[in-house]
Amino acid sequence: MSFIASIGLGIPQYVLTQEEVKDLLPTLFPTYISKLKRISAIFDHSNIDQRQVVVEKKWFQNQHSFKERNDLYTHQTVQLAIKSIKDCLHNEHMLREEFPVEHIDVIVFVSSTGISTPSIDAYIINELNFRQDIIRIPLWGLGCAGGAMALSRAHEWLQAFPTKNALIVSSELCSLTFQKDDQKMSNLVGTALFGDGVSATLLMGNDSPQKRFVRKRLPKILHSHSHIEKDTLGIMGWDVTNHGFEVIFSKRIPTLIQSIWKRHVEHVLTTSETKQDSVTSWIVHPGGRKVIEEMMRVFHLTFADIRHSVDVLREHGNMSSATIFYILKRWIEGDSHEEYSIISSLGPGFSSEVLLTAWEDVK
Predict the structure, then answer these.
(1) Into how many domains does the chain fold?
(2) How many whole angstroms separate alpha carbon 137 and alpha carbon 119?
(3) Which of 167, 187, 213 is the last residue of a domain?
(4) How confident is the model over 231-268, as pLDDT tens digits?
(5) Helix or strand or coil: residue 75?
(6) Mean pLDDT, rounded, for 300-328
(7) For the chain, how are helix, strand and coil distributed in percent, rounded to 5?
C-alpha cells in the first residue's frame, strides 16, 4: 500500500476570466463571427469562471512556431515544477516539518502539452538537490488521464519497494498549444475549457521511515485499475501538425461515461468488495460540464460528493493531468472524515483509470 502524503501547486501568474476570452473570440475565430452569439454560449455554459495561463492575453492573437511554443513549455514547466515541489515538501497543512528532497527515491513526470529530451525531470533534478541514483519514470501522451495513471504507477512501484518514497510532477501548459489558424469546433471548445497548471505530489510506501513527517489523516491507495477501450483512438488527443498540437475532441465523450467509465468503476468496487455507499468522496477529473454531469447521473452523486471537482473546474479550468491533484489537495487539506474515495480520470485511447483509497491516520 502507499499513502498520498502531500501536494503542492505551481500556479501560473496570468489570470484569464471567461469574459476576457469571450472578448477575444472575433479575433481568434473570425470564421465564426456570424455565429458569435451561439459560440459565446459554449463559454457561458462551461461552468468555468477563470483560468490561469503562462502567457499574456495578447500572445493568443498571433501565430507561433512549434519551437517557440516548446521552448516556452520547457522553461515555464521547470520554473513552475520547482515552485510546486517546494510547496509540496513544505506543506504545513500536511507535513509536520519540511520533507528533505534527498529522501525521494523515484520521480514520475507526467505531461502531454510539450516535448523534451532529456525529459523534464532531468532538468528538475539538476535544479534541486535530488540524489543522483533517483529512479526516473517520465510519462507522456496520457492527457487528462495522466494524473490518475501517474498515481497508479507510483503506487505500484511503492508496493514493490514499501520503504521508499515517490514524487509525481505533473505539468500541463495547455495555453501554449492553442492554434490561432485552427478554426475547427474542437479548438473552439478547447479554448473554452483549458487552463495551465503544475503540481507535485508526494507518496510514501507503507513502511517508509519518513511517515513520521505526516500530520494529516490521509488517503491510502488500496487498489488501482486501468482500462483502454479499443477502436476509440479518435475520441480525444492531439493532431500533430507543422505548427504544433491541434486538439481532438469527440461529441461521444459524455456517452462513454455510461458505457465505459461506469462499468470500470463498478468493476473496481466489485473486485475490492467495496459497496458504493462506503465511497464518501469522488475525486474525479471534471473534464468539462457535460462530463461531470454525466458522472453525477450514472452514480446518483450529489454536489457534496464531488464538490471540489466542480470548484477546481470553475476556478482553474481543465488543466489536463494536473487537474486531479488540485482536486485531491482540497480533499486532503479539508477537515476530512471520509471513509473510502474513488480517484478517477479519463483520457485519450480512450482510457480510464480508477483508484480506490481508504482514509487512515498514518502510524
Answers:
(1) 2
(2) 9
(3) 213
(4) 989 888 888 888 888 788 777 888 888 889 999 999 99
(5) helix
(6) 95
(7) 45, 30, 25
Query: Are residue 192 and residue 268 in the same domain, yes or no?
Result: no
Structural domain harbouring 229: 217-361
Average pLDDT over every residue of 104-108: 98
Single out the residue in 213, 245, 272 at which a domain terminates: 213
Rounded CA-CA distance 342/358 in Å is 9
- Active-site pick, 9, 144, 189, 268: 144
C-alpha closest to that of 201 among 2, 345, 8, 3: 8
Region of 48 on the Ramachandran plot (φ > 0 left; ψ -120 to 50 alpha; else beta) = beta
| pLDDT given at position 1 | 84
Q: Can you state the angle between helices 185-193 and 36-44, rounded to 10 degrees?
A: 40
pLDDT in tens, 181-204: 777 777 777 888 899 999 999 999
- Res 336 pLDDT > 70: no
pTM: 0.94
123/235 same-domain check: no
What is the grid cell recorded at 231? 477502436
Q: Are residues 354 and 232 in the same domain?
A: yes
Active site residue 88: no
| Domain of residue 190, CATH code | 3.40.47.10
Do 263 and 165 sit in the same domain of this protein? no
Distance CA 292, CA 138 (A): 28
